[in-house]
Amino acid sequence: MTNSEVSNDLPDKPASDNDPLNKTASDNAPPDQPASTLNFKGRLRARLQLIGGALASIAAIGAIAGGLIGYWTVWKTLRTEVFPDKQQTQREATARPDIAPRLSLVILPFANLNNDPEQDYFADGITTDLTTDLAQMPGAFVIGRGTAFTYKNKQIDFRALGNDLRIRWAVQGAVRRSGDQVRVNVSLTDIASGRDVWSDRFDGDRTNLVALQDQITARLARSLNIELIQAESRRSEVDRSTNPDAVDFTMRGWAKLYEPQSKIQNAQAHDLFDRALRLDPDNVEAMIGKARCLMVGVNNRWSASVVEDKKQAIDLIDRVLSKSSASASAHWTKGTLLLFGHPEEALAEYDAALEIDPNNPAVYAAKAIALVVSGRAREAFSPVQLALRLSPRDPFTFQWRFWLCHAHLHLHQYGEAIEECGRSVNLNSNLYAYVDLTSAYGATGQLEQAQRSLTELNKLRPDFTIHWYRDLAYSMSTNPQFRREIDDILDGLRKGGVREQ
Hints:
Blueprint: H1 35-65, H2 69-82, H3 88-95, E1 104-107, E2 111-112, H4 120-134, E3 141-142, H5 145-148, H6 158-165, E4 169-178, E5 181-190, E6 195-205, H7 209-223, H8 244-257, H9 263-279, H10 284-299, H11 306-323, H12 328-338, H13 343-356, H14 361-373, H15 381-390, H16 397-410, H17 414-427, H18 431-443, H19 447-460, H20 466-476, H21 480-495
Parallel strand pairs: 1-3, 1-4, 2-4
Antiparallel strand pairs: 4-5, 5-6
């Protein structure tokens, strides 16, 4: 089944649990003790036994050593073996891109069955929320929203999809809304065979969309034989808005925010989040959305009051984090607000976001540039490669390629920098990629190529000078290593023909 093939006639009954393709291990357990519960209890008991033994070892080591070194050594082992690194699956998938991870999937854009394009935001919002929820399942590898939405309203060739994205599963669906009533059809497809291994229908109302999405997430997790732990739910009870109109404005705001970026588009999204917050001042998703709009305005120099807008955005995010510290989106937004000026603090926020949601490509990419600005360019390559593996067709791929270029340039790896910046400008002609190209060509004495790059740079920014770029770069960080590397980039720009003032 493809998105474009979803029928407008929703089934009267959900798929039967008697269907052998709809069976999971939990279906064979006694009614009073489902297999998922027994499996979870068994694993928990084993982990508690291991923890008990490890704690005993800690006590013994602590008594012998008479200090904290032994405690720390054993805790690192315990943390690795009992509480595995959430990003391990992502690193393995990047190291071996030819192998699809066992729990690798994409949530394709849900079809809007209302025959009204104005209702697309509603289906898109449900798709985005499910992507975020499923991305936090233990051991899952989930393709980013940016890449998934490139398949919107397209026929799906599952064999090609699997080859392009190196994944095993696809989630598809359709949404129909009638007044306050919502019906969602969902199916899980085995990409290798192209067969739906499970499908179901979910009915609810827009006053409690989160509960409806939780049902879908839980059923998908059961079909994939994944244990969900309630404490790890993305949205706690305190996050859930009880005002359906506020929820609707919030969904419209996020849909607008995902559109191609412009000053007008950002202002429209900001207004929608403001309208949601007037109806529900504690709406977490609207607070994050408004903070994100303020952040975009500041970073794109659209803001009329940078200091005030930045303070307002951070205040909003701090309010969110005081209510719910387990919000990856809030940590990501705060990190980006801190990125230029306080990159080390930004890194801490990005790491907190990835601990909650290890499948967010935008956070990996942002972490990479934070590492560069922190004087740690050599560490920046792995996060960007993870971002590209998670969302290879993302609309921001051009920016991520530029950040790879920038890291190479900071390390004087001029050939690699030229290659990556070339890829960046081929995807999207952008100012800073031409800056780095001009510097790399200048540093290596390729003056003809430097002049061609400088010509393109001057088309985008006629007033570009060494002085302007130095002030901009120095404002990003006081880190001495970063500034030394910027000075080398400036020297390459001089050699490439950029004027001083």
